[in-house]
Amino acid sequence: MPRNGDVQFTHANISRAHRELGYMPTTDLETGLSNFVKWYLDFYSPSTKNPASSSSSSSW
Question: Which parts of the chain span the membrane according to its record (predicted)?
Fold first, then answer.
């Protein structure tokens, strides 16, 4: 049940962007969500790399 102030109905509609800008998405929703979840899990997962032992670090 929505609480006071919650938006009751939302939906994405790109018809205006298509009409005025010629925008056409190149990625379908399922693929986009899958790609986002993969990125999110990779980006926010604890890193197993030790930055101090990286060969790309420079000495000062």
Answer: none
